[in-house]
Amino acid sequence: MPEANVADVIVVGGGLMGSATAFFLRQRGMSVILLERGLVGQQASGTNFGNVRRQGRFLPQLPLANRSREIWGKLPELIGEDVEFIRTGHLRVGYRPEHVGMMEAYRDGAKPYGLDLELISGNALRERFPFIGPEAIAGSYSPHDGHANPRLSAPAFARAARRAGAQVVENCEVMAIERGVEDFRVETKTGAVFRAPLVQISAGAWGGRLAARFGEAVPIEARGPQMAVTEPVPYAITPVLGVTTKEKLEVIYARQVTRGNIVFGGTAHGPADLDTIRASVRPEVTLHQFTQLKRMVPALAQLNLIRVWSGIEGYMRDDLPVMGPSAKVPGLFYAFGFCGHGFQLGPGVGDVMAELIATGATTTPIEPFGIARFAGAA
Amino acid sequence: MAVHGAFAALAGKVEYLPETLAWNIQPGALHVARDGVARKLPFDAIILATGATDRLLPVPGWTRPGVYSLGGAQVSLKAQACAIGAKVAFLGTGPLLYLVASQYLKAGAEVAAVLDTSPNAARFKALPLMASRPELLVKGAALLWKLRRAGVPILRGVTPIAIEGDAEQGVTGLRVKDAQGRERQFGADAVAMGWHLRPETQLADLAGCAFEHDALSGLWMAKMEPDGRTGVKGVYLAGDSARILGADGAEIAGRLAASSVLMDLGIAVPVAEVTELHARRAVMDRFRRGLLKAFPWPGHLAAAVPDDTLLCRCEAITAGELRRSASALGAPEVNRAKALTRVGMGRCQGRYCGPAGQEVLAAARGVPLPEVGRLRGQAPVKPLSIATIAEDA
Q1: CB–CB contact A306 B347 (8 Å)
Q2: Lowest mean pLDDT segment, chosen from A85-89, B132-136, B231-235, B345-349
Q3: How far is CA A367 from CA A8, A363, B81, in A?
Q4: Contact across the interface for B345 and A284, Cβ inside 8 Å
C-alpha cells in the first residue's frame, strides 16, 4: 500500500492552474497531492472576469489558448460538472483609426494560428450589435470565444481530480519545500509532511516567493483587478465585449450572464496585499469604469451597480506567465503569474503541465514563458 | 419631533446632504452620490449611524404578493397612509409585532391574528432584565390589552407552516402550529412579518471594523465600546447600527459617540455628563438583552426551513441549494457558500437572507452558528446608478 502523504507529484496551490494540473495528471495515471492554503479557487481563479477569450493574446500564446479552448468545449462531460461555459463570441471595439490598424494587424497575425477574426466596420457593427455606442468605428469579432463562471471552475476541476483519485488538501499552507536526494519534502503549517519526486508551484501571485526560495527570483507584482456587476436585466448582450486600445484607462470589458447580470471590469488596478490576503476596490476606479462602460454600451447607464470585488493576481514585468520546468532544480515545475489573462488558459495549462511532468516534453510550445528568461534580472 | 427641533438648531452650522447615498468608504474618506454626482468627503472622524432593518425568517410562501416586513408595513401606514391589506396577519416576534398590529387596528384595518414565535415562558425568564425599564413594560401591556379587547387572536409559541395564496390573489391566509402542536389556519389578504431588527453594518464593515458574534441575538455586530469607539481610528458607531436600544437609546449612543469624537480631537467634554450617559445607556442595554430573551430569534426555525423554500429572494435560491453547497460542494462558511450558490449575491447583498442563511448552513454542517461566519460587506452599500458621474471627472 502506498504511503498516504507520498505521491508522484505534489502540486502547490489550488487555483485553476493547480486544480486542472491535478486533474490531468490523474488522467495520465500519475498519483498527485494538491495542497491549497485556503479553499480551492478562492483567489484570482475565483474572482476574475470569466473571459474565455483568445483574441488579443500574445500571438505565440495562441497554440496554448487553442488547446485550452478545445478543453472548454469538452465541458461539462470531461469533468462531470457544469461551470457555465458558453460559446458566445467575443467582440472588441475600437474608437480611433489607429485601433482599426491594430485590429487588422492582429487579425493577420492570428490567422496562421487558426484563429479567424472578422472585422466589422462602424454601421454594420451597430446593425449587428445594436447596443454598441456611436463612438465605436470598428469591431473585431471572434466567433468561438465565450465565457464561464470563475467561482465554479477551479472547485469543479479539483472535485473532478479528487473523484479521479487525487488527494486534495485544503486549509494547508505550505511552509517549506526542500529538495532531498530522492524527492521533495513539503512541510505545511498544520505540521503535515508530504513527499514526491516532482513538484509544481502554481501559487498565483504568491508563486514568486516560492520560486525565489529556489534561487529563481522573478519580477512579479501583486495587484487587484477591479470587477463589478449590475442588477439582472433580460438577456440581450450575447458576446463578451472589450476594447482594442493601447490606453489602459480605455480598456473596459463586459459580459452578460444568462441570468441577466452584466459583469464588467477593466481600466485601472487596485492594491493587493500578499500577507493580509486582501485586495480592495478603489471607488475612483468604479466611477471611471462607469464612464468607459457607457462609452462602449450607452444603454447600460440605465442600470444599477450592485456589487464590486477584487482579487489578488500576479503580474510579471513582461506581462507573460511563468510556465515550464525550473531552470535550476530538477523535478520542479512552475505555472504562475498569469498577469490577469490566465482564466481561459487554465484547463490548457493543466493539460500541458501534466504532459510535461509525465513525459518530459510538451507538444504545445511554451518556451516564451520559461523562468530562465529572468535569470539574473529580478 | 425632538430630533427635528434639535436639527433645526444646527441649521447653517453643518453641511447637510439629504437624499445622499453613502456607497463606499476608505480610510479618511466617505464616498457619496447625490443627484447622479459622486463626491469624496474627506474626514478626520466619522460617526456611522446607519440604522437597522427588519430581520426576516423565510417561511414557505413568504415571497407571495401581500407579504411585507413589519417595518415595511409600518412605513406604508405611517408615511403613506396605506394599509398593506384589509385583513392583515402579523407573524414574528418582538415588541414591533404588537406595536404595528395595534397601529393597524387603530387605523381601521382588521387584524386577522398576531402570531408570535416566542414561547410564553421566555417572557417570565426575561422579566428581571426587562424590569430595568418598567415604563416600557406598562406600554407593552397596554398594547396587548387593546389588541385583546378588539378580539384579535394572539398566539404565542407558534411554528409557521406556510403563507397560503396563489399568483392571482396573492396572500389568502396562513397556517401555523400553535404551542400545543395543533394546526391553525387564519384567513388574511396580507401578512406583515419580522423578528426584531438587524443592524445595518456594511459601512462599518467596509471601514475595517472588526466583528463579533453576539450569542443572544445570533447576529454579528461591529466590535465597539459603549462610548462608540470601534478600534478603527476615526470611526465611531451610534444608534441602531451599533446596538439596538430604541429611539431614546439611540440618542444617548449618539451623544456618547460625539463625546468620544470630541475627546479624541482634543476638545474637552463635561466628564459628569458622559458618566451619566453611560449609566443611562447601561440600563437600556439591560433592557435590550431582556427583550432578546423575552422574544428570542427562532434560529431553530430558520435552520429547518424546507428545502424548496426560497431563502435568497434576490437570486431566487432555495434553502435546499444552500444545504447542497454545505454537503456536496463542501462550503465550510457563508462566503464560500455564496460563491458557489449565489446566496447573498443579489441586490440586498445578503442583508435579508444572511441571518437565516447562516442558520441553514451551520445546521447543515453540524457546527455552532459562529463557525460559518458572516458575509463580508462589499460596495456599493446600496445599488448605485451607472449613470453616476464623478464630480471631478
Answers
A1: yes
A2: B132-136
A3: 24, 11, 73
A4: no
Nearest of A95, A96, A102, A100 to residue A136 by alpha carbon: A95
How many other CB atoms are found less than 10 A from the CB of residue A19? Answer: 34
Measured between CB atoms, which of A287, A301, A304 is closest to B390? A287
Pairing mode of beta strands A198-201, A138-142? unpaired
Mutate which: A82, A287, A305, vs B, most B CBs within 10 A: A287
Asked whether residue A197 falls in the same domain as residue A246, the answer is: no
Question: pLDDT, tens digit, for every residue of A118-153?
Answer: 999 989 999 999 999 999 999 999 999 999 999 999
Taking one residue from A and the other from B, the number of pairs with CB-CB distance under 8 angstroms is 79
Model ipTM value: 0.94
Contact B23 A283 (CB under 8 A): yes
Indicate if B64 and B177 belong to the same structural domain: yes
| Gap from B393 CA to chain A (nearest CA, Å) | 8
pLDDT in tens, B70-103: 999 999 999 999 999 999 999 999 999 999 999 9
From A217's Cα to the closest Cα of chain B, the distance in A is 33
pLDDT of A2 > 70? The answer is no
Q: Write b or e for each residue in A313-329: b if 16 or more Cβ atoms lie within 10 A of its Cβ, otherwise e.
A: bbbbeeebbbbbbbbeb
Q: Name which of A287, A303, A307 is nearest B393 (Cβ-Cβ).
A: A287
Give the chain A residue nearest B27 (alpha carbons): A282
Mind listing the pLDDT tens digit for each residue in B306-356?
999 999 999 999 999 999 998 888 999 999 999 999 999 999 999 999 999
A304/B386 CB distance under 8 A: yes
CATH number at residue B134: 3.50.50.60
Q: A77 in a domain, yes or no?
A: no
Residues of chain A positioned with their CB less than 8 A from the CB of B38: 283, 287
| Same-domain check for residues A108 and A118 | yes
CATH of the domain at A275: 3.30.9.10
Q: What are the pLDDT digits (tens) for A92-103? A: 999 999 999 999
Tell me the one-letter amino acid at A89: G
Which pLDDT score, from 0 to 100, does residue B128 have? 85
| A306 to B23: CB separation less than 8 angstroms, yes or no | no
Query: Does residue A354 share a domain with residue A239?
Result: no
Structural domain boundaries enclosing A120: 90-143+221-316
**Could you tell me if A26 and A165 lie in one domain?**
yes
pLDDT of residue A1: 41
Identity of the amino acid at A184: F
Predicted local distance difference test score (pLDDT) of residue A377 = 59
Contact yes or no for B115/B90 (Cβ under 8 A): yes
CA atoms in the 13 A half-sphere facing the CB of B356: 29
Q: Which chain B residues are within 8 Å of A304, Cβ to Cβ?
A: 347, 383-386
